[in-house]
Design a protein that fits this description.
- It holds the Pfam family F-box.
- InterPro entries: F-box_AtFBL13-like, F-box_dom, FBD, FBL13/AtMIF1-like, LRR_FXL15/At3g58940/PEG3-like.
- The chain is α/β, with parallel strands linked by helices.
- About 30% of the residues lie in helices and about 20% in strands.
- The strands form three sheets. The chain has an 18-stranded parallel beta sheet.
- Strand 19, helix 14 and strand 20 form a beta-alpha-beta unit.
- Helix 5 packs parallel to helix 6.
- The relative contact order is 0.04.
Length: about 550
């Protein structure tokens, strides 16, 4: 038995597609040529190919990867191919590829009304601002043909067409993605196989419509709701199977605020909410392994102390629900809310949290240690700065001293913005010699400009247990000479095993090579160093091979 790997299947599919197109154009060219003297049957017999000997199901699978126009044109190849395209399991129907609306509608009517279309597994449908009443008969047709994956999008127009009731009762539907449409209020919903549902700019007549829709999907795992404007709805998500939930609602064109969001999904692994409208958030049965990404305002853009005090009860009920998670990402506004709330009442303990990603301004760094006190088991901290650091005064710049309190951090990511903050800090006073400040640090990922590289030994000296270091260089600031202290940081002698260097800019070949040389010559137990080559990377291999290696087991990887 011959086993076809994924790569060979892909190559075989591409070969078949090219063969279909080549065979079609060759035959059509011969038929139209004035020099063709042989009858068409003889040509077809002489040009009989191996592709035509494949079963219909496999040919239809190949045709499903062609654009609809080319799929239809294969019907002229032979009598066998005349209706073969009607059996393709996947179809992408886009109104813009047709000369006009009538041609688009006529094609769809013919296709979906055809008794020869036995089943449609995957369908992507794009339509414009014209009257879309034809969608009812189309949707009724493919629902009866065992549709599994459906993507329907209104590209233009303000009118939200109502989808028929037949869509609510489909035993085969696995994935449903809708854009700019209206869902009617059904009396009965049955979607027993639906696992993925994305509702983008979809209008619901009332709160119960959405709640019933979600509750009637017993195996739903992935749900996304993107609200075009503030529709005044309360979104209640109650599901025993849901694993991923994303809710985006940012505009307040219709109402000032709405009551809120209610989530009860005990199997939830990922929750992302970006909502600047809802006043309250009730999250129940959230497990510790869930990953949270929250951008909330609790119904007001004002995140000051007075505003937070007025929303105190809403915040009090929300914080304990998220305090159990291990991975948390919070926006600048929610960080402000948490800080001001901490002045009114004690914060819950985030005992399970091992990773925190927070966005804030440098002036707000002084608040971070108080929050970190509630995270005794934190291992990874990512701080993203917001604002214009160049206009910050010395008082704000001195706030980076909060780093002195983070001795338990194991994994740290420093972005380009942070490295620039450190640079401006150094203009006010020399960088401190932190000693073994990061005594537990094992992994560090730093994005910085090449001009900051001279401070690298100071950082490394602060990380005596560092095992993995990733340095990514951005910007165009050059340095005259790259030199380091003769004293090697402790981690180079006892712990550093993996180094990755990546200059995502041109013209820093010499600096990158000198860095590689520095680590190769001074790291005792280095196992692997990875260097990302740029346009001049072809010379790296010869140069790096000449560098002395303190660790004989070190492997050099050039990418």
């Amino acid at each position: 038995m011959t086993v076809i790997t994924y790569a060979s299947k892909s190559a075989f599919k591409n070969l078949c597609l090219n063969f279909v197109l080549h065979n079609y154009h060759m035959r059509m060219g011969r038929e139209s040529s004035k020099q063709a003297r042989y009858p068409i049957r003889l040509i077809l017999r002489l040009k009989r190919d191996r592709l035509s000997q494949l079963p219909d199901t496999l040919i239809c699978h190949i045709l499903s990867h062609l654009p609809i126009k080319e799929t239809v044109t294969t019907s002229v190849l032979s009598t066998r191919w005349k209706n073969l395209w009607l059996k393709v399991p996947s179809l992408e129907l886009i109104f813009s590829i047709f000369p006009n609306f009538n041609a688009f509608k006529s094609f769809g009517d013919s296709f979906f009304d055809s008794n020869r279309v036995s089943s449609i597994n995957n369908l992507k449908l794009y339509f414009d601002e014209h009257d879309a009443s034809y969608l009812t008969s189309w949707i009724n047709a493919f629902v009866t043909r065992n549709i599994q994956r459906l993507y329907v999008r209104r590209v233009r127009g303000n009118y939200f067409h109502e989808l028929p009731l037949s869509l609510y009762v489909c035993d085969t539907l696995v994935s449903l993605k809708l854009f700019h449409l209206t869902l009617v209020n059904p009396e009965f919903v049955s979607l027993p196989c639906l696992k993925i549902m994305h509702l983008n700019y979809v209008w619901f007549p009332n709160d119960a419509t959405f709640e019933r829709l979600v509750a009637s999907c017993p195996v739903l795992e992935d749900l996304k709701i993107d609200v075009l404007w503030n529709d005044g709805r309360v979104y209640r998500v109650q599901s025993r199977s849901l694993k991923r939930l994303r809710l985006l609602r940012s505009s307040s064109m219709v109402f000032d605020s709405v009551p809120g969001v209610v989530i009860d999904a005990p199997l939830l692994c990922y929750l992302r909410i970006s909502d600047h409208v809802s006043e309250t958030y009730i999250v129940s049965n959230l497990k510790s392994n869930a990953k949270l990404d929250i951008h909330l305002d609790f119904g007001s853009e004002d995140c000051g102390e007075t505003s937070v005090s007025s929303r105190r009860s809403h915040i009090r009920s929300f914080l304990p629900a998220i305090s159990k998670v291990m991975d948390l990402t919070i926006s600048e506004n929610i960080f402000k809310v948490i800080h001001h709330y901490s002045n009114l009442a004690p914060l819950p303990q985030f005992d399970n949290m091992s990773r925190l990603h927070v966005t804030l301004r440098v002036s707000e760094l002084k608040w971070l240690p108080n929050f970190l006190e509630c995270c005794p088991n934190l291992k990874s901290l990512i701080v993203a700065f917001n604002g214009d650091f160049e206009k910050m005064g010395s008082e704000e710049m001195n706030q980076i001293s909060f780093l002195l309190g983070m001795t338990r951090i194991v994994d740290m990511t420093i972005f380009m913005y942070t490295s620039k903050v450190i640079r401006h800090y150094s203009l006010l006073e020399p960088l401190p010699q932190f000693g073994y400040m990061f005594g537990y640090m094992s992994h560090m990922h730093v994005t910085l400009s090449m001009s900051l590289i001279k401070w690298l030994p100071i950082f490394l000296e602060s990380c005596p247990k560092l095992k993995s270091l990733v340095l990514v260089f951005l910007g165009c600031e050059k340095i005259n000479q790259l030199s380091f202290s003769s004293v090697n940081p402790k981690c180079l002698l006892s712990s550093l095993e993996f180094v990755e260097l990546d200059a995502q800019i041109m013209g820093f070949d010499e600096e990158l090579l000198n860095l590689a040389k520095y680590f190769l010559e001074n790291s005792s137990i280095l196992q692997k160093i990875t260097v990302h080559r740029n346009i001049h990377g072809s010379t790296y291999e010869g140069l790096i091979s000449k560098f002395r290696r303190r660790s004989r087991l070190c492997q050099v990887i050039l990418i």
